[in-house]
Structure formats: structure tokens, C-alpha cells
Amino acid sequence: MTPLLSFANVGKCFPDGGREITVLDGVSFEVDAGVFVGLYGPRRSGKSTLLRIAAGIEQPDTGTVRYDGRALQDMTRSQRGRLLRHELAFMASGDWRPHPGESVVDHVAMSLGSEGLTVRDARRRALGSLERVGVTATCADEPAGSLSLAERTLVMLARAIVHEPRVLLVDEPAVMPSLSDRSRFYVLLRELAGERGMALLVVSEEMGALQGSGLMMSISGGEVCTTAEQGIVVPLPRRSARAAERSGS
Amino acid sequence: MAEAITNTRGWMRGASAPLRGALLGIVLERPGHGGDLASRLVARLGATWRIDTNDVYRLLDQLVAEDLVTAREEPRRDNARRTRVVYRPTDLTEGAMTAWMETLLPREPVRLGLHAKLAVARDEDAYRLLAALRDYERECLRLAQLVAPSANEMRSWTALVMDCTRDAVWRQLQADVDWATQTRQRINERIRARER
Question: Which of residues 72-111 of B touch A (CB under 8 A)?
């Protein structure tokens, strides 16, 4: 079966002064439909770059990223843009940019702009999405700029899922100050993925944010370590005949 | 009562003391047969404790010997003609549990096989260490995968303390992964420096 999203030997470098920093080095993994993949890594370990490459926002220097068997590098910019608007959803805590005075529901409905819906239908779908993530109808009419960090994160999630993507890419969900808000958000993410059969790729610098993932990975020095790999089996040295004789076997 | 508790302090010693204490808490909450107590203990502490059911029976026997738990054959609910051993608290259990909660238990030694290898590794072992550290990192990630995710609501005390227990495991595994990755980086840097 073709994986929904796959990385094959992906590499990425960034210039740093006169040098080059390797952010991703031969990264390979697969994400199947409906599976939750968690990537743990400290700050500046390359996890956000990996996610942006998965979304087709950035291009790798080497290797291939495929979505449903198609290489993202072979697609035109507009094809990748369409993919990101329909099939993939990318949610990053730093990407909160509502227009001044825009209401919460309009902020979510705006992302449906390219789907040929009437404003009324787009708002109705946005309200449904907001309701699913627990944002009440009264809050939906508030200015998006007035929301707390926890509410903002929920609205970003509503915006990400409103076009019913097959893959949801989440960059750092552990931004909410309250532990119980965070916990509720992680549960919500898993529930949404489960009920929609959506694949989930979450990157975080907190391992707790990846709870419930079916495949766990970590990243450091550009390399990814994954639970899908088999450990290296080092054969035990053979016992010498003399040692065997001593132990009587 | 106080004297009785002092006399039972032996159960608080040794590597299995935390499991014996946790078992007392489980029995106090609700009596049960061995299998039931073992599965409740696993649910509370999580799969990363790698609790063996046979060990639970051994620990229960020790608690019975200390008079902290009684074991009595009782008819099964589903088939009255058959019996099974049900473990119940005694008059001493409540006090022993409180004493355990109040006792400052010594910290477990930080004794990881990989630490010992690292401590005496030779120059030529660098690549072997890198492989061992990567395996250890993967093992930590596998253990993290075993931790049951949190529930939606933390209204009850039980849900709260279970979540705090899970959080402790996450944080410990996260720290171990950080250590393994940083150590790999340091060894890699040295290998590269020597090659230049």
C-alpha cells in the first residue's frame, strides 16, 4: 500500500555565516492514512523545517517527499498550493495573523475562499468546525485579535480542519500556558484524527504533546531516530572452549 | 497500632518496596483477586513499569505474611461452585499506607548499563557507543509510545494523580532522549575533529 506521506533520504542545509548547517540529513519515514506520528526534538533541531517540507512550503536539497505517491518536487508551485489548501493542513502556533477587525468565524471561513462556496455556506462550515473544537457560537463573532492563546490555538485548529484534510501537520501544540488546556487540546487532536481517518504529524519539544502516537520519532543533528526501525543487533562473542569447559557446559 | 506499623517496616525496604506500597493502596481502594489487583496496578503505574503478574502474587504473599493483607478463598461471582483467592485489607493496612506515604524513601541509584559502558569506553569504541546510544534513544521512544494518553477531564483525584504519574514518565524519557542525542553529538564532533 502506498503511504500517504513519505520522506526518502531527505536532506536540507541552511547557510550560517560562511558555513552551512545541516538541518536534515538522510531523513526517511512514512506516514500511513489515519496514523498519528509524533516527532520530538529540542529547539532548533530541524523539526519545523521537516514539517514545512512535508507541507510543500519548503523544498529539500536532496531526497524525495511524496504525497500519495506523487513527488512534491515534481509539482508546480500552484499544484503544491492546491494540495496545501485541500489535502494537507498545516498548523503552526506562530502563524496567527488575523486581519484587523476580522471575526473568529470569518477568519476560519476565509480559508475556504478557493472552494467556490457562497459566503453563507463558508460561514456555516466554519461555525461547524469551530463548534467541533469547542469554540462557542458567541465567541465565533468576537474579533479574532481579542482571543487568548488557548482560544487562538483552537481557532487555528478549526481553520486547519475546515476543509477536511487527509493529513494534519501540527507545529508545536504545547504553547498553551495551562497544563489542563494543553491536555484537552491533545485529546481533541487525537479524537479529530480518529473520527476523520486523518493522518497526524505533530512536532513538539515536549514529549507529552505526542502522547498516543502510533509512531514516535526524535530528531537531533539532522538525523531522525524512529521506533519503526529495528535496533542494531550485536552478536555476543562466542565463548571460548576453555570458558565453556570451566563452566561445565 | 503505631508499634504494629513499626514492626511492619520491613516491607518498606528493598527494591520492591514501591510496588508493595502501591499494592496496599490498590487493595485499600477495593479488595480483589490477584489478577484484578495486578491489572489495576498496571493501569495506575503504566506499562513502562513492566509489572509481571507473577511478581504481584509474590508481593501479595509478602504483604499477607506481614499481616497487611488477608487472602481468603471466596466463591466466584460468575460461578459459585468455583472459588478464587480474594485479597482484603486488614486493620493494619490503613496505618501502613499512611506510614509509607510519610516515609522518605531513598532515591533509586542512577545505574544505567550505558553509563558504565560510557565511563570506561576506549577511543576505538566511539562507533559502538554511537550505535548503543541510538538504540537507547529508540528504546526510550518505544517506552514513550507505551504510556497511555491522558483522559479528557481531570475532575477526579484518581485521574489527576494518574496524569501526574504519566507526566513523570514523559519527562524522564524526554530527559533520557536529550542526554542520548547530546552525547551522540559530542562523540560525533570529536570523531570529525580527529578526522580533520
Answer: none
Best to test chain A binding among B117, B139, B140, B141 (most A CBs inside 10 Å)? B141
- The grid cell for B177 is 532522549
pTM score, two decimals? 0.84
Domain for residue B37, yes or no? Answer: yes
Q: How many residues does chain B have?
A: 196
Provide the number of structural domains found in chain B. 2
Q: Which structural domain, as residue segments, surrounds residue B76?
A: 2-102
In this prediction the ipTM stands at: 0.82
Domain boundary (B55, B75, B102) is at B102
What does the pLDDT profile of chain A (249 residues) look like in tens digits?
789 999 999 999 999 888 889 999 999 999 999 999 999 999 889 999 999 999 999 999 999 999 999 999 999 999 999 999 889 999 998 888 888 889 999 999 988 876 778 888 899 999 999 999 998 877 888 888 888 888 899 999 999 999 999 999 999 987 888 888 888 899 899 999 999 999 999 999 999 899 999 999 999 988 999 998 654 444 433 444 444 444 443
Query: CA of A233 to nearest chain B CA: how many angstroms apart?
Result: 9
Cβ-nearest to A183 among B128, B145, B150: B150
In a 3-state reduction of DSSP, which class is residue A65? strand
Q: Which three cell numbers stand for residue B129?
A: 557507543
- Shared domain for B117 and B98, answered yes or no, is no
Apex CA B137: angle with CA B172 and CA B143, to 5°?
55
* Cβ–Cβ contact A42 with B under 8 A: yes
Domain boundary among B60, B83, B102: B102
